[in-house]
Hints:
Structural class: mainly alpha
Low-confidence stretches: 1-11
Distance between the termini: 46 Å
Helix content: 55-70%
Mean pLDDT: 90
Strand content: under 5%
Amino acid sequence: MTQKSLHAxxxxxxxxxxxxxxxxxxxxYQWLLNNEDAGVIDAHIRQAHGFxxxxxxxxxxxxxxxxxxxxxLRAGLSPLIDRPLDQLSPVEHAAxxxxxxxxxxxxxxxxKVVINEAVELTKSFGGIDGHKYVNGVLDKFAATARNVxxxxxxxx
Length: 156
C-alpha cells in the first residue's frame, strides 16, 4: 500500500489549505472525543505524515480558533440542526464547526468554497449521507453569516 492510498480520497488533488482543513478535522475529532488540550492535539497532528504539505498557519487558525470559539459557533449552529450537537457524529460536528468558523471569520474565502470544503471533508471522513446534512446546515448558516454574499449569488 502506498502512502497516497492511505487517504480517503487519494485521487483528489489536495491543496495545502485543504490539507490544513483535513488535519484540523482530525484534531477537532480528537478534541471532541477526548477533550484534550489544544496544544497537545496540535503537537500530535503536526507530527502526522503529510503535515509538511499543509498550510500550517491555516491549520493553527482553525484548530485553536474553533476550540476557543466553540460555544459561540455551537450557539449559531444549534437553531439550524434537528438534534442536539452531542448527537451528531464527531466528523459532522467537526466539519460544521470548521464551516461555521470559516464563514464567520474568513470572509476572503467565498461562502460556496467554505461549504464545499466542509462537504468534501465529510465525504472523505464521515458516514454515507453526512455530507448532505453538513451542506444543508451550512447553507442555512451562510444565509445569516454572509447574507449579502448569499443574496448576491442567488440573484445571478
